[in-house]
Amino acid sequence: MKKPKPEPLDRARLRQAVIDLLSRRDYSRLELQRKLQPKAADADDLTAVLDDMAERRWQSDERFTDAFLHSRSDRYGPLRLTQELQQKGIADARTAVAALDTDWQERAAQLALRKFFGADLSDIKQKARIYRHLAQRGFNADHIRYALEQLAAAGDPHGSLSDDEISPGWD
User: Fold this and answer.
1) Rounded to whole angstroms, how far apart are CA atoms 29 and 106?
2) What gap in Å lies between CA 45 and CA 111, rounded to an integer?
3) C-alpha angle 61-68-17 in degrees, rounded to nearest 5
């Protein structure tokens, strides 16, 4: 048996829905719009409610960006963070990520050491796996090269690996 489709939300119920969502966590304006657009009776009502929430500072893209970056910058690199913020409707995502006081090379090295300490870097497949892992997390080639160097140095106290052995060979 099919579930009946809920009634579209009027302005008062949209306002309550936005407050309910914002009471749990911060959302970007675009996220709220995408979430509530299918439920809204009128798109103008939704725009008015979102404008009211922004005017009262109950919804703030700036606050959302800060919270988002704070929660994810320890696991992901600048490329992925920028992409995710852009998908969430943050126009100045690059500026926000660049404003973080983070050494991305060190962050990539920390992640590589945590997951791959003791890995055999003479194996090209293993190096490619580490490279892919860090690339998928949003680190660029320079960050990844630095992380591979640090990983090699941690696994080889004598530092006998050359730069050719560290590079994945995709340059």
Assistant:
1) 33
2) 45
3) 55
- Which residue's structure tokens are 């657009």? 37
Q: What is the rounded distance in angstroms from the CA atom of residue 147 to the CA atom of residue 132?
A: 12
| Percent composition of the chain: helix, strand, coil (DSSP 3-state, to 5) | 65, 0, 35
Q: Roughly how many angstroms between the first and final C-alpha of the chain, as a whole number? A: 58
Contacts of 13 (CB under 8 A, 6+ apart): none
Please state the pTM of the whole predicted model: 0.83
Cα four-point dihedral sign 68, 71, 76, 78: positive
Q: Give kind and range of the element (H or E) at residue 13.
A: helix 11-24
Long-range contacts of 129-135 (CB under 8 A, 24+ apart): 131/168, 131/170, 134/77, 134/108
Q: At what angle do helices 61-72 and 78-87 cross, to 10 degrees?
A: 150
Give how far the C-alpha of residue 64 lies from the chain's centroid of Cα atoms, to the nearest Å: 12
Positive or negative torsion for Cα 116, 75, 35, 6: positive
pLDDT in tens, 1-58: 788 888 899 999 999 999 999 999 999 999 999 999 999 999 999 999 999 999 999 9
